[in-house]
Amino acid sequence: MFMLSELKSATNNFSDENKLGQGGFGPVYKGTLPDGKQIAVKTLAGWSKQGFQEFKNEVELLGNLRHKNLVKLIGYCMNKNQKLLCYEYLPYGSLDCILFASDEIKREKLSWQTRYKIIEGISSGLQYLHKESGLKIVHRDLKPSNILLDEDMNPKISDFGLARLYQDDETHKETSVIAGTYGYMAPEYAMHGMYSEKLDAYSFGMMLLEIVTGINNSSFRNNQLASSLVNHVWQHWDKHEVEVLKDPTLEDACLKQLSRCIHIGLLCVHESPMSRPNMAEINLMLRNDSNKIPALPAAPSRPQLLLSQNSRSSTSNSDIIF
Questions:
Q1: What tens digit of pLDDT does each residue of 204-233 get?
Q2: Which domains does the chain have, with CATH numbers?
Q3: Rounded to 5 degrees, what angle do the CA atoms 157, 162, 164 make?
Q4: How far apart are CA 229 and CA 218, in angstroms?
């Protein structure tokens, strides 16, 4: 537990020059501890919709988790109405800032080899959360802005404020409060508040399609050609036009592996949670360190949600885009 004075000193009194960015929790600042260790300090803003429960989640859950693909919580501070979380500093920031950058040179940092390493790392971290941590944890808010990158472009899953525990004998849980990010929410969660590890599998599948294409799924709102990224990908996948889906900054040599990732991504975003693979199965599908790559399940059929979306004459801003 840090004293507020320690974190003020580390961040030069939370100066603007040290500000790294701002999320739903509040501003994040870069700092340096007396031993030279660099840190990132997240402060709970007064306007934040996240409160003590989210702060408590981060401290109790992340403080007890240890995996190379989860961001490391170093400490926390509670001082009257101020709440701060202290993490390891990750120099490349969040994945979305590079993946969706308008600067093509910046996006070229994400070669196919790097992207595949990021995909495998996220998948490994999720399997740890679901099966290997000694707990059963659903993250509930997986998206590129919650994936941080270290100096070697290794991914770290962050932001556990919405994470929830459930028991080994439970197949799913329900909530009346839907929290998360539209576009990454599985249909059963967005519509009925049902969540399980298959919610994270859906979010992972959506991120997988984004990493492959370099396209943010939110960019399809009001798009007359495709109602969602899933629809866009499936349309070209069905016509065997994988090369059209490849991020233009990627080399052509990756097409075979890229095609495999699209296949996995489409399996993950199936509208039925029972039909989605779990993270252990996804990791097996992604593994390609031998000549005998595990066979994939049959290619998914056209998603039913897309059929209903296409029946509309247009998509309004208020529609939920899955």
A1: 999 999 999 999 998 876 555 556 899 899
A2: 4-88 (3.30.200.20), 95-310 (1.10.510.10)
A3: 95
A4: 8
Q: What would the two tokens of residue 117 be?
A: 């390493």
Q: Is 238 a catalytic residue?
A: no
The band of 14, judged by pLDDT with boundaries at 50, 70 and 90, is very high
Where is 213: in which H helix or E strand?
helix 197-213
pLDDT at position 200: 96
Look at residue 85 and give its three-state secondary structure: strand
Strands (E), 38-114: 38-43, 73-79, 82-88
Nearest alpha carbon to residue 196 among 267, 134, 304, 274? 274
DSSP for 124-164, written as a single string:
HHHHIIIIISSS-EE-----GGGEEE-TT--EEE---TT-E
Distance between CA atoms of 60 and 56, rounded to whole angstroms? Answer: 6
Separation CA 185–CA 61 (nearest Å): 21
Considering 141, 159, 200, 247, which one is annotated as catalytic? Answer: 141
